[in-house]
Amino acid sequence: MEKTETIPARAQEQTVDKDDYQFTFYPGFASRAVVRRKDGSEVELYKQEKPHKLPEGKKKPETKHKLKLKGGKHQQDITLDIQDPGLRIARITVELYAVSPHNGISTMSLTDDGGDEEIVVDNQPVLCPPSC
Question: Total structural domains in the chain?
Fold first, then answer.
């Protein structure tokens, strides 16, 4: 007889829309998320304003969830599948290339000094419990 594995339900993720970006995240992970542009400007996509209430009986946040960024001036579309069983991730920074609207090919090369934008997601949420 073949053994079947029970897959836990995915964390309850939320989606916010701001300045032509759409950002999907798990509020038990993200305390703040910003897009930083090469010109130094920032778009704050999310900042935690109140404690994230964990489901009854849970004492720690979910360890599997997704971060997804769509839109912006370069029509970004990335998804990161987070699996952090030890809750070790403090921050995620991803540099994003600019994409030419004419041919869909990156306008940056690996020898350039970084991407056109980066998304930074801080993982320092206030959780309830203990901070209810």
Answer: 1
- Provide the CA 8 distance to its chain's centre, in angstroms: 20
End-to-end, the C-alpha distance of the chain in Å comes to 46
Instruction: Note the pLDDT tens digit of each residue in 10-42.
Output: 568 999 999 999 999 999 999 999 999 988 999
How far apart are alpha carbons 58 and 54 in whole angstroms? 6
Give the sign of the dihedral formed by CA 123, CA 70, CA 36, CA 51.
negative
Model pTM? 0.80
Q: Is residue 3 part of a domain?
A: no
Domain that holds residue 60: 14-128
Say how far residue 129 (Cα) sits from the centre of its chain: 23
